[in-house]
């Protein structure tokens, strides 16, 4: 049982640093009143402030606080809430922060992270000298729009509203009910935003001759409305996440491979398989490598493929060795499998480098390849069964594995067991049958 | 028993075994494997993994989560490190423990997503305003990837700063045979929950006081602005000086706790090859080949890139009159080696065509 300390005031003794008449102070007073009403535990309330004059706010509260980077306050608040959903997380940011961090605003609303965002929207950048922001009304004079702002202002409320925010309110620093609205917003489980318009007496007010009345009128002139604009009963993200995670079970166990066969290999041995992306080149090579591992060898498999993994070439190379770290690197492969025209250009340079001790296993399309290595052409049509494209690489690799045997065929069969066993075993049996009809070769 | 896994798997396992409870990241080849495994595995351990709307959001969420009690990690590649930049500074200034995995790919710019490189070595050190230190580790094998990722969590807590795990496309995405018993966890301590006193302390300058977490019964403040010990913005010159010197001293004065160099010295070898990360494999290999051929050769594999392990490297340099530095970038670490080589000849092998440096290429330079 923990005791909660509620405070008479969630402000500390320090006076606000704002210019005389600045609208930020009165809004913060309302936030203080809201926290008093909520009887919040100050250590369980984290005020995450943005940058600018609005960003100074956290220092005047006796709660926990985080003061981060310009426009990014929502990201820290999201992390805090996701890690500790029981905390009350309140973001205080300016209109400048909502502009530069617009993507975080939209995405936090969309996810419905249970934070409350209080925008101190004074229609300009106060701290940096009254430049225009994304919310500066069209025509307004600022230090960067001397002829009047030519840009259309951002409607913060509509932006988060259409993207799913649980609670959206627009008002001004002069609203009597503001503290109650804040209580309402903070109690809302999902993402809540209060767009509170206020006056920057140092810049926006003198340049635009605007006061309380003018501020209210501007909202109307822009076709915007005040009050609670959206209220939705939507699930909060941190809670939803935890509920979903509860059903996920245990961490995936390591998939261990038993060493149950043996191999006579006493040197580094290299195999390269080239084919089309999406045609299971990597899976076939992986299966071959796992068969080697089952036979006590050490394998490393590298892939080369375009970023679009289902089109173009796919080349996988595997290096086998009786040692954990093979000595030296391999210049030319012992086995080169060419399964399609996509793969050929990627490995054609190797054909020259390979010597007579190497073999190239390929399909009838490439009968004319020039290489000093032994060229083994396998016609899939010669097998009684069907060999789908996705099994071609494994079939050719199976042929190669018999002609240059570094491990037993049964190791390959054992490695094939698993989710795609039937397809893999089909390819392997095809490879066994087709290798056995190779002229001058003894059946495996 | 063996396993056939990629480096991403080893990194994720190292992180989870080290007690990582929060991950946020944005998809980018070749780091996406870490994101996808974290999204799948972390919730099962009671942790949270999020795909952020961008890299800025991802690292920001990690920082917020750490302060609320999580052990956080993010992973990206060069383009994402660019977007992390400002928040790396925040984590330095706010003294927030954070593990950042950089799976390097060939740059500059978008470069080549599926091509290996080691081009971010200086970038992570100097990648944010101010020039204050960070820690960076560089695994060269899967067991090292596991161990050093876990070690990164330990160092992040110990020094309250961002710790980078510098890896690359080859290590993260190639499948390698491993003996699971070679995965060794470093010693890890729990973060003290009942932290007392001010949230920041600068005296003594090198001492790191425990981080306070939100929601543990007392109010806590954090900030990325220049601050006093109570995390209030300050313009007081002596306080600013004390803060900034603390950020340096806490790491630089404790280099001995961070330095990791795998030295393989051979008596009579006057040539030393210094390597790190994926290139270290060829370095180790070149030494083995040279010795097989009766040519004495020594190697030093740098596992802690930053701060520069000057003491350990100094020992490695003692016997050498020539130092060879192979790396997959335009000589980025070589310049650090030159700085501390005490006038010895330093020769770089720089490969920037997307291919790995081979042992034979190193031996050609060894002569
Ligand atoms: C990345 C970055 N760019 C620019 C700045 C400079 N800057 C400080 S405050 C500010 C504008 C703040 O405006 P707003 O958020 O509306 O707050 P206000 O001062 O009006 O309360 C800017 C651009 C910064 N701190 N960080
Ligand atoms: S510059 Fe504007 S926003 Fe900043 S304190 Fe002064 S009046 Fe307020
Ligand atoms: Mg503003």
Structural class of chain A: alpha/beta
Total DSSP helices of chain B: 13
Round the mean pLDDT of chain A to the nearest integer and report it: 94
Gap from first CA to last CA of chain A: 74 Å
**Low-pLDDT windows of residues of chain A:** none
Strand content of chain B: 15-25%
Whole-number tally of structural domains of chain A: 2
Structural class of chain B: alpha/beta
CATH homologous superfamily classification of the largest domain in chain B: Thiamin diphosphate (ThDP)-binding fold, Pyr/PP domains
Provide the gyration radius of chain B in Å.
Answer: 20 Å
> How much helicity do the residues of chain B have?
25-40%
Q: What are the low-pLDDT stretches of chain B, counting only 5+ consecutive residues below 50?
A: none
Strand content of chain A: 15-25%
Level-1 CATH class name of the largest domain in chain B: Alpha Beta
Query: CATH architecture of the largest domain in chain B, please?
Result: 3-Layer(aba) Sandwich
> What is the count of DSSP helices of chain A, taking H or I runs of 4+ residues?
14
CATH-defined architecture of the largest domain in chain A: 3-Layer(aba) Sandwich
Give the overall shape of chain A: elongated
How many domains of chain B? The number is 2
Ions, cofactors and other bound molecules:
thiamine diphosphate, iron/sulfur cluster, magnesium ion
Q: Give the distance, in angstroms, between the N- and C-terminal Cα atoms of chain B.
A: 40 Å
């Amino acid at each position: 049982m923990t005791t909660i300390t509620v405070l008479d005031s969630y402000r500390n003794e320090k006076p606000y640093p704002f210019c005389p008449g600045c609208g930020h102070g009165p809004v913060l007073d309302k936030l203080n009143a809201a926290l008093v009403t909520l009887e919040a535990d100050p250590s369980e309330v984290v005020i995450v402030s943005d940058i600018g004059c609005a960003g100074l706010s956290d220092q005047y509260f006796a709660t926990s606080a985080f003061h981060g980077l310009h426009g990014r306050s929502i990201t820290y608040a999201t992390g805090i809430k996701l890690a500790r959903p029981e905390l009350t997380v309140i973001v205080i940011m300016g209109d400048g922060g909502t502009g530069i961090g617009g993507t975080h605003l939209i995405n936090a609303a969309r996810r419905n992270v249970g934070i409350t965002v209080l925008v101190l929207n004074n229609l300009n950048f106060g701290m940096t000298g009254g430049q225009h922001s994304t919310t500066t009304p069209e025509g307004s004079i600022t230090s960067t729009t001397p002829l009047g702002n030519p840009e259309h202002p951002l409607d913060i409320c509509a932006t988060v509203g259409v993207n799913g925010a649980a609670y959206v309110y627009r008002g001004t620093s002069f609203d009597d009910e503001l503290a109650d609205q804040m209580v309402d917003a903070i109690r809302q489980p999902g993402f809540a935003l209060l767009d509170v318009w206020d006056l920057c007496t140092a810049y926006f007010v003198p340049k635009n001759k605007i006061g309380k009345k003018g501020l209210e009128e501007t909202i109307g002139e822009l076709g915007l409305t005040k009050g609670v604009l959206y209220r939705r009963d939507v699930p909060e993200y941190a809670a939803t996440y935890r509920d979903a995670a509860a059903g996920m079970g245990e961490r995936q166990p390591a998939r261990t491979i038993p060493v149950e066969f043996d191999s006579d290999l006493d040197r580094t041995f290299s195999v390269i398989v080239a084919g089309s992306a999406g045609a299971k080149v990597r899976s076939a090579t992986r299966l071959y490598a796992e068969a080697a591992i089952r036979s006590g060898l050490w394998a490393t498999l590298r892939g080369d493929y375009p970023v679009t993994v289902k089109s173009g070439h796919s080349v996988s190379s595997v290096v086998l060795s009786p040692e954990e770290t093979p000595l030296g690197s391999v210049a030319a492969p012992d086995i080169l499998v060419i399964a399609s025209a996509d793969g050929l250009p990627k490995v054609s340079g190797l054909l020259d480098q390979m010597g007579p001790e190497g073999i190239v296993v390929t399909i009838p399309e490439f009968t004319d390849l020039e290489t000093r290595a032994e060229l083994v052409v396998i016609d899939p049509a010669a097998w009684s069964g069907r060999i789908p494209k996705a099994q071609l690489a494994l079939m050719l690799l199976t042929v190669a594995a018999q002609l240059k045997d570094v491990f037993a065929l049964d190791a390959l069969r054992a490695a094939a067991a698993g989710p795609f066993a039937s397809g893999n075993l089909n390819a392997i049996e095809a490879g066994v049958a087709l290798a056995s009809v190779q002229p001058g070769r003894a059946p495996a | 028993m063996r396993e056939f896994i990629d480096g991403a798997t080893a990194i994720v396992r190292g992180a989870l075994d080290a007690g990582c409870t929060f991950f946020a990241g944005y998809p980018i080849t070749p780091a996406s494997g870490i994101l996808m495994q974290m999204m799948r595995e972390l919730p099962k351990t009671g942790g949270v993994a999020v795909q952020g709307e961008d890299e800025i959001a991802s690292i920001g969420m990690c920082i917020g989560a750490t302060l609320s009690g999580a052990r956080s990690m993010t992973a990206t590649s060069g383009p994402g490190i660019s977007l992390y930049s400002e928040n790396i500074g925040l984590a330095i200034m706010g003294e927030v423990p954070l593990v950042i995995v950089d799976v390097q790919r060939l740059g500059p710019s978008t470069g080549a997503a599926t091509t290996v490189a080691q081009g971010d070595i200086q970038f992570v050190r100097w990648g944010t305003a101010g020039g204050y230190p960070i820690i960076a580790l560089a695994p060269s094998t899967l067991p090292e990837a596991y161990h050093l990722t876990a070690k990164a969590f330990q160092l992040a807590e110990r020094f309250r700063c961002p710790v980078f795990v510098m890896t690359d496309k080859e290590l993260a995405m190639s499948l390698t045979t491993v003996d699971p018993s070679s995965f060794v966890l470093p010693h890890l301590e729990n973060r003290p929950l009942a932290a007392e006193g001010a949230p920041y302390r600068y005296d003594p300058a090198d001492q790191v006081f425990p981080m306070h977490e939100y929601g543990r019964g007392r109010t806590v403040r954090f900030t990325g602005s220049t601050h006093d010990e109570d995390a209030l913005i300050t313009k007081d010159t002596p306080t600013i000086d004390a803060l900034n010197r603390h950020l340096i001293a806490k790491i630089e004065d404790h280099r001995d706790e961070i330095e990791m160099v795998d030295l393989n010295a051979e008596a009579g070898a006057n040539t030393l090859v210094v390597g790190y990360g994926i290139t270290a494999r060829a370095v180790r290999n070149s030494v083995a080949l040279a010795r097989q051929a009766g040519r004495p050769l020594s190697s030093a594999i740098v596992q802690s890139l930053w701060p520069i392990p000057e003491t350990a490297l100094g020992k490695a340099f003692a016997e050498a009159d020539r130092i060879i530095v192979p790396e997959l970038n335009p000589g980025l670490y070589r310049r650090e080696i030159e700085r501390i080589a005490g006038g010895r000849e330093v020769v770089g092998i720089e490969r920037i065509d997307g291919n790995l440096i081979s042992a034979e290429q190193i031996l050609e330079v060894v002569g």
